[in-house]
Amino acid sequence: MKSKKGFAIGLDMDGVIIDNTDTKIRFAKRMGFTLKPEQTHAELIEKALTPEVLSELRTHLYFNPVTALQAKLVPGSLDGLHQLKKSGQRFYLISKRKYPIIARELLKKHKLWGKYFDEKNAFFVRETEEKDYHIGRLGIGLYLDDQPSTLDKLVNAKHKILFDRFNCFVKSKHRRVGSWEEFIKMVKEHGVVNF
C-alpha cells in the first residue's frame, strides 16, 4: 500500500467495523417487526420501525452493555485492520458514540482495543462536526463511513468512501465499496494518495 507521511485513513465504527445487523433484527422481532438485513442500516431503519421502537433500540444498542456487547465484527474487518497495520498505514477510528465506555468494551471483546486501537488513534464524538474536526486535525485524507449523510457533511476528508455492504445506496454520489476486501484492494491498487 502506498502511503504518504501526512495522509491517514479514517474509519467509522458501527456499520464499518462493528456489525449490529443481527442484534437489530432480533430486537425488532421481539417488538413485533420483521427486518431484512438491508433495512437495519442506520439511515433506513427509521422507515421500518416506529419512533418509539427505534428510540428503545438505540438505547439498547449504545447504552445497555448486555445488548451492545452482542454485536459482531463486520465480515473482513479484522483482516482489513491487520493489513492496514502491517503495511504501516496510519489509521484512526472516529465514531459517533455518545457513551465511549461501552464502545471501548466492545472493541476489547473483539480484541481490537490495544492491538489496532487505543487512546491515541480512537476518538468518540457526539456530532458529525466533531468527526470532521478530528479528520482535519489528524491529517486524514480518506474516510470510510457507512452513512452517506455523514460523508456529505465532512469537508476535511479529500476522499470519502461509502461502505455499502447491502447495496442500499447504488445511486450515491460517493465512491462505494461493498466489503473490506474491496476497500483494501482499492487502497492497494490506487494507494491512498492516488484517488
From TrEMBL:
Coiled-coil zones: none
GO molecular function list: 5'-nucleotidase activity
Lineage top rank: taxon: Bacteria
Gene Ontology terms describing biological process: deoxyribonucleotide catabolic process
Stored InterPro entries: 5'(3')-deoxyribonucleotidase (IPR010708), HAD-like_sf (IPR036412), HAD_sf (IPR023214)
Protein's name in the database: Uncharacterized protein
Catalytic residues, chain numbering: D12 (nucleophile), D14 (proton donor)
Annotated source species: Candidatus Harrisonbacteria bacterium RIFCSPLOWO2_02_FULL_41_13b
UniProt family annotation: Belongs to the 5'(3')-deoxyribonucleotidase family.
Pfam families, per the entry: NT5C
